[in-house]
Design brief:
It is built from 11 helices and 16 strands. By secondary structure, the chain is of the alpha+beta class.
C-alpha cells in the first residue's frame, strides 16, 4: 500500500486530513496519507522537511518528553519536582507485570504490588478515590470507587488490559484543558462531564439513549456504552437509577470524568483565560520539554487570577478541534489553530 498525495478541496477525506491539505497548501506543503482512512501520513514542506502524523499526533515533540507525558505517574513525579501541584496518588502493578519483572530484576520486583499499596492509600485518605490506566487516554477506564469491594473489582477489570493502574484522590474544582504551542496558549476550554437534562417525563434510560444517539449522529460518543457500569455507579451516588424520572431542567451527571471523547461537552474560554493560568500552562509545557501540549487543570476558575489549582494530566497529542459554539465558529477556530501549527512546522 502506498501513501497518496492529497490536494486541497479533495472530497471524501476526514476532517483533519481536509484541514491539513487546505492549510498545507498555504505553506506550499504537500500532504500524503494512507488511502483507506486518511489517518496516518506526513506533511512535506518545500524545504524538504517532513512531519509525520497519526490522527492528532504530530512528531513536533521530543520522543522522550512525549513518552513521559503518556506515563501519568512519572509525569506527576516530574511536575512535582518542578514545583507544580499534582494529585496525591500511588501506582499499582498487575501480578503478571510483577512476575515478568522477577525474571529481569528480582530486587525491583520485590517493591511492586497492588493490594497492600491500595489498602494503605485508602486507609490514609479514605473514599472515594479514582482508578485509571497509567497510560490510558480519552478517559478510558477512569472509574470512581466508593468501597474496598468496588476498588478491587475495578482493579482486576483494569488489570485485564493494563499492567499499571494509578490510584488517585479526587480533586475539587472545575475541569479545564489548556493547549500550549511554543509557550503560548492557543486554546482553553472547560470540560463538562457527560450529562442529561431532565424533562419531567422521561426516565434517565430514555434520556441517555437519546443523548448517545445525538453524539453518534455528530460523529462523537463511539466509546460510550449505555450499559457502562460507571454510569450506574454515578447515578447511585446521586440517589438515582436508570428508571428515575427527574424534574424538568435538572442536570444529571452520568460519568465521573469530563473527557470529551467520553461524551463530555466544552465551553470555549480561549479569549478569557487569565494570564496567571496562561503562565502556569506555558511553564508546565516548558518544564516537560513539550512544544505542543494539552494541560489538564482542575481549578476554581481559570478566568480569574490565582486561586486553588492542580495539574491533573498532560497530553503530548491533544485534540485540536474541541471548540464549543456553532459548527462554523468551531471550524474557524480549529482552522486557525492548525494554521499556527503548520506555520510552526514550516519554520527552520
Amino acid at each position: 500500500m502506498s501513501l497518496l498525495r492529497m490536494t486541497a478541496g479533495t472530497k471524501g477525506k476526514p476532517f483533519l486530513t481536509s484541514l491539513l491539505c487546505d492549510i498545507g497548501a498555504e505553506f506550499g506543503a504537500s500532504v500524503h496519507v494512507d488511502p483507506d482512512y486518511g489517518y496516518v501520513g506526513y506533511i512535506e514542506f518545500p524545504s524538504g522537511r517532513r512531519f509525520f502524523f497519526k490522527n492528532t499526533s504530530f512528531d513536533i515533540n521530543p520522543q522522550a518528553a512525549s513518552a513521559i507525558a503518556r506515563d501519568k505517574d512519572y509525569c506527576a513525579l516530574l511536575l512535582k519536582q518542578f514545583g507544580h501541584p499534582v494529585p496525591d496518588g500511588v501506582l499499582l502493578y498487575a501480578p503478571r507485570y510483577t512476575q515478568q519483572m522477577k525474571l529481569k530484576n528480582e530486587s525491583v520486583a520485590s517493591g511492586l504490588g497492588f493490594g497492600e499499596r491500595a489498602i494503605a492509600f485508602v486507609g490514609a485518605r479514605g473514599f472515594p478515590v479514582f482508578l485509571k490506566p497509567n497510560e490510558g487516554s480519552e478517559g478510558r477506564g477512569v472509574t470512581k470507587v466508593d468501597t474496598i469491594e468496588e476498588l478491587f473489582g475495578t482493579l482486576w477489570t483494569l488489570f485485564e488490559q493494563d499492567d499499571m493502574v494509578l490510584l488517585q484522590v479526587p480533586l475539587q474544582g472545575r475541569d479545564y484543558r489548556v493547549v500550549v504551542l511554543d509557550g503560548e496558549v492557543v486554546s482553553a476550554y472547560e470540560r463538562v462531564p457527560f450529562s442529561v437534562i431532565g424533562d419531567g417525563r422521561s426516565d434517565i434510560a430514555a434520556l441517555l439513549a437519546d443523548a448517545v444517539a445525538g453524539l453518534r449522529a455528530n460523529k462523537r460518543g463511539s466509546k460510550i456504552r449505555v450499559e457502562d457500569p460507571r454510569i450506574a455507579a454515578e447515578l447511585k451516588r446521586q440517589n438515582l437509577a436508570m428508571d428515575s424520572v427527574v424534574e424538568n431542567g435538572k442536570t444529571v451527571r452520568l460519568l465521573p470524568n469530563a473527557n470529551l471523547s467520553a461524551g463530555g461537552s466544552s465551553v470555549d474560554l480561549t479569549d478569557r483565560i487569565d494570564r496567571f493560568y496562561q503562565d502556569v500552562a506555558a511553564k508546565v509545557a516548558r518544564d516537560l520539554g513539550l512544544t505542543l501540549a494539552g494541560i489538564d487543570i482542575i481549578a476554581d476558575d481559570i478566568c480569574a487570577p490565582g486561586g486553588n489549582y492542580c495539574i491533573l494530566e498532560v497530553n503530548s497529542a491533544p485534540g485540536l478541534n474541541n471548540f464549543a459554539g456553532s459548527s462554523k465558529e468551531s471550524e474557524a477556530r480549529t482552522r486557525e489553530l492548525y494554521r499556527r501549527l503548520l506555520k510552526r512546522m514550516s519554520e527552520p
